[in-house]
Design brief:
alpha+beta, Creatine Amidinohydrolase, Chain A, domain 1, Creatine Amidinohydrolase, 2 domains, 7-stranded mixed sheet, 4-stranded mixed sheet, 21 strands
């Protein structure tokens, strides 16, 4: 029996803690969303994705099989967290918080119902909620009309404020610290995980030194060798580096849910002629991609020009992913604004304040000359006149034949 147990409560344990963004910045975000709500005749918004809760409340949650949310009304933006999190959500979110307990499976929906009393039209994230979630939400809020907010919320995130840009600049410097640490660990016989762990540990330490409070353990490093370089997001393994191996290193510090990616192709000890030719071609595409990122440029037109470079070399079919994507509120399991992907099917016009991670990649299959994946990644912020390149680690054979 649970009749004497609480289902939804305020568990405000401790005082509000350090936040990377000012109250003025958080007010700006919520006000922008409320402006859309007014235009769309929406009474309240329910955010459920990590990226939206983080963006509008400043708190990054870890689901672990539980539901989380934030309800934005005309007067408040309240996070909904699980009892297992204690007062952490309260301490690190902007605005009020309520906690739901595990004693009944519908307690999350009870919290939503309490925070949306009287609402007739509720905006939710159609691209995030499951069919089961929607069924239970409809049952908890009978008669409430549901509309989609995923696209307007995404568009708000695409243009980074000055405070967001400053955070990304700090992240870029920390990525370079991880990169330098990794380079020093590359040698024949060393397993991938040792290089990656060294880079990540260095970034965690640098992040901890840079802020009064941070949850630094979300930073990560991708480091692949040999056959494992065929995927830019392939996990780190215990494969040992061999002399002559192609290597792919990407350092990704995570600062308050904002990630930066710095990626470079490397070789251990020496690079053969076939590999060098492919590497130089991909570097040429990468450098041109950086030049093309500017206000007024369209994502699909950037992709089209870069396609021609690969096509002229007979490499277009070996291209394995898009030329880049938005940066900021993103991680391995959440976020990213697909409207700023540098792809053929995205017609977005770049504008000042957008952050773009540029990363052309080609794959030469196993058994062929120069086998492996070639991938460079840099972060840029579009300015009024061009783009500011935040990551500046050296690239190419003059610098990155190491170990």
């Amino acid at each position: 029996m649970t009749h004497d147990m609480l289902h939804v409560l305020e568990w405000h344990n401790g005082a509000k803690g350090y936040a990377p963004f000012s109250d003025l910045e958080m007010d700006r975000r919520q006000t922008a969303m409320r402006d859309w709500m007014d235009i769309s005749e929406v009474d309240a918004a329910l955010f459920t994705s990590p990226q939206c809760i983080l963006y509008f409340a400043g708190w990054m949650h870890r689901p672990f099989g539980r539901k989380y949310g934030m309800v934005l009304t005309r007067t408040a933006g309240t996070t909904i967290s699980a009892g297992v999190d204690g007062g952490q959500a309260w301490r690190h979110s902007y605005g009020p918080n309520v906690t739901y307990t595990d004693w009944r499976r519908d307690n999350f929906y009870r919290a939503v119902r309490q925070l949306t009393a009287g609402v007739k039209r509720l905006a939710i994230e159609f691209d995030h909620v499951s069919l089961d979630f929607r069924r239970l939400l409809d049952a908890a809020l009978p008669g409430v009309e549901m509309v989609d907010l995923s696209l307007p919320a995404m568009w708000l995130r695409t243009v980074k404020s000055p405070e967001e840009q400053d955070l990304l600049r700090k992240g870029a410097k920390i990525a370079e610290i991880g990169f330098s640490e990794a380079i020093g660990r590359v040698a024949g016989g060393v397993p991938e995980f040792e290089v990656a762990t060294a880079a990540t540990t260095a970034m965690i330490a640098a992040s901890s030194d840079a802020f009064p409070h941070i949850e630094p353990m979300e930073s990560w490093t991708w480091f692949q060798s040999g056959i494992n370089t065929d995927g830019g997001h392939n996990p780190v393994t215990n494969r040992r580096i061999a002399r002559g191996d192609i290597l792919s290193l990407t350092c990704c510090p995570m600062l308050f849910g904002y990630s930066v990616a710095l990626g470079r192709t490397l070789f251990c000890g020496h690079v053969d002629d076939a590999s060098l030719a492919l590497w130089e071609k991909n570097l040429a595409v990468h450098r041109r991609a950086i030049e093309l990122v500017r206000p007024g440029a369209k994502c699909n037109e950037i992709a089209a020009e870069l396609n021609e470079m690969y096509r002229n070399w007979g490499l277009l079919r070996q291209r394995s992913c898009g030329y880049g994507h938005s940066a900021g509120v993103t991680g391995p399991f959440f976020g990213r604004e697909q409207a700023v992907d540098l792809r053929e099917d995205v017609q977005t016009e770049l504008q000042a304040g957008m952050a773009v991670s540029v990363g052309p990649m080609i794959l030469s299959p196993a058994g062929s000359a120069g086998a492996g994946g070639y991938h460079e990644t840099d972060l840029l912020i579009v300015t009024s006149e061009g783009a500011e390149r935040l990551t500046s680690a050296p690239m190419g054979p003059a610098h990155n034949v190491v170990g």
